[in-house]
Request: fold
Amino acid sequence: LALAAVAIAWRRRRRPAVVAASSDPELLADLEAAIESGRLDFAFQPKVDLRSGRWLGAELLVRWNHPEHGPIAPEDFVPMAEQAGVIGAMSVHLVRCGLAQRRRWPATEPPLHVSVNVSANDLADPRLVDAIIEACPGADAGLMLEVTETDVMREPGRVADALPRLRAHGIRISVDDFGAGHSSLVNVRHLAPDELKIDRSFVTNLLASHSDQAIVTAIIGLAHELGATVAAEGIEDPATRQWLADAGCDAGQGFGIARPMTADEFATLLNVGQAGSGAG
Ligand code: C2E
Ligand code: MG
Ligand code: MG
Ligand code: MG
Reply:
Protein backbone atom coordinates (compact mmCIF):
# COMPACT_ATOMS: atom_id res chain seq x y z
CA LEU A 1 0.00 0.00 0.00
CA ALA A 2 2.78 2.42 0.94
CA LEU A 3 4.57 1.47 -2.26
CA ALA A 4 1.52 2.11 -4.37
CA ALA A 5 1.18 5.54 -2.78
CA VAL A 6 4.79 6.31 -3.60
CA ALA A 7 4.29 5.18 -7.19
CA ILE A 8 1.25 7.41 -7.58
CA ALA A 9 2.99 10.32 -5.89
CA TRP A 10 5.83 10.07 -8.44
CA ARG A 11 3.58 10.45 -11.36
CA ARG A 12 2.12 13.59 -9.80
CA ARG A 13 5.08 15.34 -8.19
CA ARG A 14 8.17 14.67 -10.21
CA ARG A 15 11.28 16.01 -8.50
CA PRO A 16 10.90 15.21 -4.80
CA ALA A 17 9.25 11.90 -5.63
CA VAL A 18 12.21 10.64 -7.67
CA VAL A 19 14.36 11.00 -4.60
CA ALA A 20 11.87 9.03 -2.53
CA ALA A 21 11.51 6.39 -5.23
CA SER A 22 15.20 5.87 -5.82
CA SER A 23 15.73 5.06 -2.18
CA ASP A 24 12.92 2.51 -2.12
CA PRO A 25 14.74 -0.83 -2.00
CA GLU A 26 11.77 -2.90 -3.14
CA LEU A 27 11.13 -0.82 -6.22
CA LEU A 28 14.83 -0.80 -7.04
CA ALA A 29 14.88 -4.59 -6.78
CA ASP A 30 11.86 -4.77 -9.09
CA LEU A 31 13.61 -2.54 -11.61
CA GLU A 32 16.82 -4.58 -11.47
CA ALA A 33 14.85 -7.78 -11.98
CA ALA A 34 12.94 -6.26 -14.90
CA ILE A 35 16.21 -5.20 -16.55
CA GLU A 36 17.94 -8.53 -15.96
CA SER A 37 15.08 -10.63 -17.23
CA GLY A 38 14.50 -8.42 -20.27
CA ARG A 39 11.00 -7.51 -19.10
CA LEU A 40 11.40 -3.83 -19.92
CA ASP A 41 9.37 -2.86 -22.94
CA PHE A 42 9.98 -0.13 -25.49
CA ALA A 43 8.22 2.04 -28.04
CA PHE A 44 9.47 3.50 -31.32
CA GLN A 45 8.86 7.11 -32.25
CA PRO A 46 9.38 7.65 -36.00
CA LYS A 47 11.78 10.31 -37.23
CA VAL A 48 11.18 12.00 -40.58
CA ASP A 49 13.34 13.81 -43.14
CA LEU A 50 11.67 17.23 -43.18
CA ARG A 51 12.69 17.91 -46.79
CA SER A 52 11.70 14.69 -48.52
CA GLY A 53 9.08 13.42 -46.10
CA ARG A 54 10.83 10.05 -45.95
CA TRP A 55 11.25 8.12 -42.71
CA LEU A 56 14.79 8.24 -41.40
CA GLY A 57 14.28 5.67 -38.65
CA ALA A 58 12.97 5.79 -35.12
CA GLU A 59 13.93 6.58 -31.56
CA LEU A 60 13.59 3.79 -29.04
CA LEU A 61 11.85 4.89 -25.84
CA VAL A 62 11.98 2.55 -22.86
CA ARG A 63 8.77 1.57 -21.07
CA TRP A 64 8.31 -0.06 -17.68
CA ASN A 65 4.96 -1.51 -16.83
CA HIS A 66 5.22 -2.43 -13.16
CA PRO A 67 3.14 -5.52 -12.34
CA GLU A 68 1.45 -3.77 -9.39
CA HIS A 69 1.87 -0.04 -9.91
CA GLY A 70 1.29 0.09 -13.65
CA PRO A 71 3.29 2.17 -16.12
CA ILE A 72 6.09 4.26 -14.62
CA ALA A 73 7.56 7.10 -16.70
CA PRO A 74 11.18 6.82 -17.91
CA GLU A 75 11.88 10.22 -16.38
CA ASP A 76 11.10 8.57 -13.02
CA PHE A 77 12.86 5.21 -13.32
CA VAL A 78 15.86 6.01 -15.55
CA PRO A 79 17.42 8.09 -12.74
CA MET A 80 16.78 5.13 -10.42
CA ALA A 81 18.62 2.82 -12.80
CA GLU A 82 21.50 5.31 -12.89
CA GLN A 83 21.77 5.48 -9.13
CA ALA A 84 21.50 1.73 -8.74
CA GLY A 85 24.29 1.20 -11.26
CA VAL A 86 22.14 -0.86 -13.64
CA ILE A 87 21.77 1.74 -16.38
CA GLY A 88 24.58 0.17 -18.40
CA ALA A 89 22.88 -3.22 -18.49
CA MET A 90 19.65 -1.53 -19.49
CA SER A 91 21.30 0.46 -22.27
CA VAL A 92 23.04 -2.56 -23.79
CA HIS A 93 19.82 -4.57 -23.64
CA LEU A 94 17.91 -1.78 -25.39
CA VAL A 95 20.61 -1.33 -28.06
CA ARG A 96 20.28 -5.07 -28.81
CA CYS A 97 16.48 -4.80 -28.95
CA GLY A 98 16.65 -1.78 -31.25
CA LEU A 99 19.11 -3.41 -33.64
CA ALA A 100 17.12 -6.66 -33.67
CA GLN A 101 14.02 -4.72 -34.71
CA ARG A 102 15.98 -2.78 -37.32
CA ARG A 103 16.72 -6.05 -39.13
CA ARG A 104 13.01 -6.23 -39.95
CA TRP A 105 12.98 -2.81 -41.61
CA PRO A 106 13.29 -2.38 -45.37
CA ALA A 107 16.71 -1.61 -46.84
CA THR A 108 16.68 2.02 -48.00
CA GLU A 109 19.23 4.55 -49.16
CA PRO A 110 20.30 6.17 -46.89
CA PRO A 111 19.81 3.25 -44.49
CA LEU A 112 17.27 3.65 -41.69
CA HIS A 113 18.75 4.14 -38.25
CA VAL A 114 17.58 3.39 -34.74
CA SER A 115 18.31 5.99 -32.06
CA VAL A 116 18.82 4.77 -28.51
CA ASN A 117 19.05 7.07 -25.48
CA VAL A 118 22.10 6.36 -23.33
CA SER A 119 23.64 8.09 -20.34
CA ALA A 120 27.02 9.80 -20.34
CA ASN A 121 28.08 7.27 -17.69
CA ASP A 122 27.57 4.53 -20.24
CA LEU A 123 29.87 6.23 -22.73
CA ALA A 124 32.45 6.91 -20.03
CA ASP A 125 32.71 3.15 -19.35
CA PRO A 126 34.99 1.44 -21.91
CA ARG A 127 33.49 -2.02 -21.21
CA LEU A 128 30.06 -0.70 -21.98
CA VAL A 129 31.26 0.92 -25.17
CA ASP A 130 32.72 -2.50 -26.10
CA ALA A 131 29.39 -4.17 -25.43
CA ILE A 132 27.54 -1.65 -27.61
CA ILE A 133 30.06 -2.11 -30.42
CA GLU A 134 29.73 -5.91 -30.13
CA ALA A 135 25.97 -5.59 -30.54
CA CYS A 136 26.47 -3.89 -33.91
CA PRO A 137 26.45 -6.00 -37.04
CA GLY A 138 29.05 -4.35 -39.29
CA ALA A 139 30.49 -1.18 -40.70
CA ASP A 140 27.10 0.43 -41.16
CA ALA A 141 25.72 0.02 -37.69
CA GLY A 142 22.52 1.98 -38.33
CA LEU A 143 22.76 3.00 -34.70
CA MET A 144 22.62 6.51 -33.28
CA LEU A 145 23.17 7.09 -29.57
CA GLU A 146 21.37 10.05 -27.99
CA VAL A 147 22.92 11.59 -24.93
CA THR A 148 21.43 14.70 -23.37
CA GLU A 149 23.37 17.94 -23.43
CA THR A 150 23.16 18.21 -19.63
CA ASP A 151 24.54 14.71 -19.24
CA VAL A 152 27.37 15.23 -21.75
CA MET A 153 28.51 18.34 -19.93
CA ARG A 154 28.98 16.34 -16.73
CA GLU A 155 31.64 14.25 -18.46
CA PRO A 156 32.65 16.08 -21.65
CA GLY A 157 36.16 14.61 -21.76
CA ARG A 158 35.21 11.00 -21.17
CA VAL A 159 32.30 11.11 -23.58
CA ALA A 160 34.54 12.65 -26.25
CA ASP A 161 37.10 9.87 -25.64
CA ALA A 162 34.54 7.19 -26.49
CA LEU A 163 33.48 8.79 -29.74
CA PRO A 164 36.33 7.79 -32.07
CA ARG A 165 35.83 4.10 -31.21
CA LEU A 166 32.07 4.33 -31.72
CA ARG A 167 32.54 6.24 -34.96
CA ALA A 168 35.00 3.69 -36.28
CA HIS A 169 32.12 1.21 -36.09
CA GLY A 170 29.66 3.50 -37.86
CA ILE A 171 27.83 4.48 -34.67
CA ARG A 172 26.63 8.09 -34.61
CA ILE A 173 26.10 10.47 -31.70
CA SER A 174 23.26 12.91 -31.17
CA VAL A 175 23.22 15.57 -28.46
CA ASP A 176 19.65 15.37 -27.13
CA ASP A 177 17.64 18.21 -25.59
CA PHE A 178 20.13 20.62 -27.10
CA GLY A 179 19.81 24.23 -25.95
CA ALA A 180 18.33 23.31 -22.60
CA GLY A 181 21.68 22.52 -20.98
CA HIS A 182 24.79 24.57 -20.48
CA SER A 183 27.33 23.48 -23.05
CA SER A 184 30.17 25.70 -23.91
CA LEU A 185 30.62 25.89 -27.65
CA VAL A 186 34.19 24.70 -27.15
CA ASN A 187 32.85 21.45 -25.73
CA VAL A 188 30.37 21.02 -28.57
CA ARG A 189 33.09 21.58 -31.14
CA HIS A 190 35.40 19.11 -29.41
CA LEU A 191 32.65 16.51 -29.30
CA ALA A 192 31.91 16.89 -33.03
CA PRO A 193 28.48 15.25 -32.74
CA ASP A 194 26.72 13.86 -35.80
CA GLU A 195 23.39 15.41 -34.81
CA LEU A 196 22.06 18.18 -32.57
CA LYS A 197 18.51 17.55 -31.38
CA ILE A 198 16.75 20.79 -30.51
CA ASP A 199 15.03 20.63 -27.14
CA ARG A 200 11.25 20.41 -27.22
CA SER A 201 10.93 23.55 -25.08
CA PHE A 202 12.00 25.68 -28.08
CA VAL A 203 9.66 23.88 -30.47
CA THR A 204 6.40 23.85 -28.51
CA ASN A 205 5.74 27.60 -28.88
CA LEU A 206 7.85 28.20 -31.94
CA LEU A 207 5.29 29.98 -34.10
CA ALA A 208 4.34 32.42 -31.35
CA SER A 209 7.80 33.15 -29.98
CA HIS A 210 10.33 35.27 -31.83
CA SER A 211 13.02 34.44 -29.30
CA ASP A 212 12.45 30.69 -29.76
CA GLN A 213 12.63 31.20 -33.52
CA ALA A 214 15.94 33.04 -33.08
CA ILE A 215 17.34 30.25 -30.90
CA VAL A 216 16.19 27.49 -33.26
CA THR A 217 17.64 29.32 -36.26
CA ALA A 218 20.93 29.72 -34.41
CA ILE A 219 21.07 26.01 -33.47
CA ILE A 220 20.38 24.98 -37.08
CA GLY A 221 23.20 27.25 -38.24
CA LEU A 222 25.57 26.00 -35.55
CA ALA A 223 24.86 22.35 -36.35
CA HIS A 224 25.47 22.84 -40.05
CA GLU A 225 28.65 24.84 -39.46
CA LEU A 226 29.90 21.95 -37.31
CA GLY A 227 29.07 19.47 -40.07
CA ALA A 228 26.22 17.93 -38.08
CA THR A 229 22.61 17.40 -39.00
CA VAL A 230 19.89 18.93 -36.86
CA ALA A 231 16.65 17.38 -35.63
CA ALA A 232 13.71 18.95 -33.82
CA GLU A 233 11.64 17.07 -31.24
CA GLY A 234 8.14 17.86 -30.03
CA ILE A 235 6.60 18.89 -33.37
CA GLU A 236 2.86 18.84 -32.72
CA ASP A 237 1.33 20.57 -35.77
CA PRO A 238 1.89 20.91 -39.54
CA ALA A 239 2.65 24.65 -39.40
CA THR A 240 5.54 24.11 -36.96
CA ARG A 241 6.82 21.28 -39.13
CA GLN A 242 6.71 23.56 -42.18
CA TRP A 243 8.46 26.41 -40.35
CA LEU A 244 11.28 24.07 -39.33
CA ALA A 245 11.60 22.64 -42.84
CA ASP A 246 11.79 26.17 -44.30
CA ALA A 247 14.42 27.12 -41.71
CA GLY A 248 16.62 24.24 -42.90
CA CYS A 249 16.05 21.78 -40.06
CA ASP A 250 16.89 18.32 -41.39
CA ALA A 251 14.82 15.95 -39.29
CA GLY A 252 11.74 16.02 -37.11
CA GLN A 253 9.85 14.06 -34.52
CA GLY A 254 6.71 14.75 -32.58
CA PHE A 255 3.14 13.77 -31.87
CA GLY A 256 2.10 15.81 -34.95
CA ILE A 257 4.19 13.50 -37.15
CA ALA A 258 3.85 10.18 -35.34
CA ARG A 259 3.31 9.10 -31.74
CA PRO A 260 5.53 6.51 -30.10
CA MET A 261 4.23 3.09 -31.24
CA THR A 262 4.98 -0.62 -30.93
CA ALA A 263 7.78 -2.19 -32.95
CA ASP A 264 5.17 -4.03 -35.05
CA GLU A 265 3.28 -0.82 -35.77
CA PHE A 266 6.48 0.88 -36.87
CA ALA A 267 7.45 -2.01 -39.15
CA THR A 268 3.98 -1.79 -40.72
CA LEU A 269 4.29 1.98 -41.15
CA LEU A 270 7.60 1.54 -43.00
CA ASN A 271 6.09 -0.97 -45.33
CA VAL A 272 2.95 1.03 -46.00
CA GLY A 273 4.55 4.26 -47.13
CA GLN A 274 6.15 7.54 -46.33
CA ALA A 275 5.40 10.41 -44.01
CA GLY A 276 3.61 12.72 -46.42
CA SER A 277 4.42 16.32 -47.34
CA GLY A 278 7.04 15.29 -49.89
CA ALA A 279 7.88 11.94 -51.42
CA GLY A 280 4.62 9.99 -51.32
P1 C2E B 1 13.82 12.32 -24.99
O1 C2E B 1 14.90 11.40 -25.40
O2 C2E B 1 14.00 13.78 -25.29
O3 C2E B 1 12.50 11.72 -25.66
C1 C2E B 1 11.39 12.47 -26.10
C2 C2E B 1 10.23 12.39 -25.13
O4 C2E B 1 9.24 13.34 -25.57
C3 C2E B 1 9.51 11.05 -25.10
O5 C2E B 1 8.93 10.89 -23.80
C4 C2E B 1 8.41 11.24 -26.13
O6 C2E B 1 7.29 10.41 -25.95
C5 C2E B 1 8.03 12.69 -25.89
N1 C2E B 1 7.48 13.32 -27.09
C6 C2E B 1 7.73 13.01 -28.37
N2 C2E B 1 7.07 13.82 -29.20
C7 C2E B 1 6.38 14.68 -28.42
C8 C2E B 1 5.49 15.78 -28.70
O7 C2E B 1 5.20 16.13 -29.84
N3 C2E B 1 4.98 16.44 -27.63
C9 C2E B 1 5.27 16.09 -26.36
N4 C2E B 1 4.69 16.78 -25.36
N5 C2E B 1 6.09 15.07 -26.06
C10 C2E B 1 6.65 14.38 -27.08
P2 C2E B 1 9.29 9.63 -22.90
O8 C2E B 1 9.22 8.39 -23.71
O9 C2E B 1 8.45 9.74 -21.68
O10 C2E B 1 10.81 9.85 -22.52
C11 C2E B 1 11.20 10.90 -21.71
C12 C2E B 1 12.71 10.92 -21.55
O11 C2E B 1 13.15 9.75 -20.86
C13 C2E B 1 13.49 10.91 -22.86
O12 C2E B 1 13.54 12.19 -23.41
C14 C2E B 1 14.82 10.37 -22.42
O13 C2E B 1 15.61 11.40 -21.87
C15 C2E B 1 14.42 9.38 -21.32
N6 C2E B 1 14.41 8.04 -21.91
C16 C2E B 1 13.43 7.45 -22.64
N7 C2E B 1 13.81 6.21 -23.04
C17 C2E B 1 15.08 6.02 -22.56
C18 C2E B 1 16.02 4.94 -22.64
O14 C2E B 1 15.81 3.90 -23.27
N8 C2E B 1 17.22 5.13 -22.01
C19 C2E B 1 17.51 6.28 -21.33
N9 C2E B 1 18.72 6.37 -20.75
N10 C2E B 1 16.66 7.31 -21.25
C20 C2E B 1 15.45 7.19 -21.85
MG1 MG C 1 16.05 11.17 -26.95
MG1 MG D 1 15.00 14.95 -26.42
MG1 MG E 1 13.54 15.34 -23.54
User: Anything to note?
Assistant: DSSP finds 14 helices and nine strands in the chain. Confidence is low (pLDDT under 50) at residues 1-19. The pocket of magnesium ion (ligand 3) is lined by residues 176-177, 197, 233 (CB under 6 Å).
